[in-house]
């Protein structure tokens, strides 16, 4: 099996593209096959080196590796030119100056259903001759067979007057030369497929043009198998876009998702039991993935489900592993103790700093939390708590817990009437990891200093 991922570097790698890459990767890894990375950089204005770099980085972050490439499509233009010339020489393609208006006029005369046929004028853009008889059948593993009657297909333009080839031509020749056996891509390319089949099978093969080099792994070149992946929608049933939250792989990384959770979630977008809450490790995905079980219905990307799934992955990491990832994510070090007491309350890496950053950077300044929890009653409870903490010997988590529960009992109050004022004093807000754990990570001196500052401040 030889598959390919062929992104156009006209922007960041989007979630749909990442899913296409992942499905190809899962197929290749599951079959012991080869994944070819081809950069379709023929749009010279939008294909920048920065965009290529971003795509490579996104694949690296997702841990989707490839076996051949990256191959630049533009770097192959000489080969494209040669194949084009052969087709022209053999009369399977011709040059025509026909414009869009000429095509319209042709249809007005012959009927809208009639595919446009031009005449060879020896100049202008290059069109492929489509035979009137017969049809091209696209065998799609996901969608079944679709027949395209030739008589309805326009002779497609395959190169501009200056000889630069168009997308469908470049793709077909590149797939032939790379000995691609399975073409797995988004549904938006379905209408290109008959043109590409006509190009590769009918014309190129009829002209006796073989793949540029013999296949390195002995795969026989034949008609590739096609699979067009279902569209991605947001939870509102509309085509997935930035409005639905994260749109690119970079967005997902910045939002604090783990690559293994993203792989799991993307794999389920259109494949599996339609249960997008299934936890499947990457080796399990490699083992189980099959094109036969990809749905043709649009799949729904729901960031809340990804968050949930990510939380499950995050809590399954060892504290050391999670700490290393958080240190890389935040650019800070020495986080281990804080990570250990925060992991139960996090779903993404980005949740860590808002939850536990106060441990390192000092209390936040949430006015509402102060007003709510450090009124006269709250300050009295805090003063009692301070006295209890100050006396502890040794200052252990168990002792702290017992002492503070003692304060709750002595004041005959609810636990939160004592714990929330402490929390606000330590964190400056009403959110933090567990209060006993937080006290023990801060240490007694720091905790007492923060409590004193809070008592002082709210006294004014
Ligand atoms: N370059 C195309 C894209 O990024 C994909 C072409 C293909 O997979 O055949 O949408």
Bound molecules: glutamic acid
List the uncertain runs.
Answer: none
Strand count: 12
Strand order of the largest sheet: 1-2-3
Helix content: 40-55%
Rg over alpha carbons: 31 Å
How does the major sheet shape up?
Answer: 3 strands, parallel
Strand content: 5-15%
Number of helical elements = 20
- Overall shape: it is elongated
Distance between the termini: 74 Å
The mean pLDDT is 93
Structural class: mainly alpha
What features would you highlight for this structure?
mainly alpha, 460 residues, 3-stranded antiparallel sheet, binds glutamic acid, 3-stranded parallel sheet, 20 helices
Topology:
Elements (H helix, E strand, L loop, with lengths): L1 E4 L9 H17 L2 E6 L9 H14 L5 E5 L4 H13 L3 E4 L3 H11 L14 E4 L6 E6 L3 E6 L7 E3 L7 H11 L4 E5 L6 H14 L18 E5 L2 E2 L15 H6 L4 H9 L14 H7 L10 E2 L2 H14 L2 H12 L5 H7 L9 H5 L1 H4 L5 H7 L2 H16 L5 H15 L3 H13 L7 H8 L1 H14 L3
Parallel strand pairs: 1-2, 2-3, 9-10, 11-12
Antiparallel strand pairs: 4-5, 5-8, 6-7
Helix pairs in contact: 1-9, 5-6, 8-10, 16-17, 16-18, 16-20, 17-18, 17-19, 18-20
The structure holds glutamic acid.
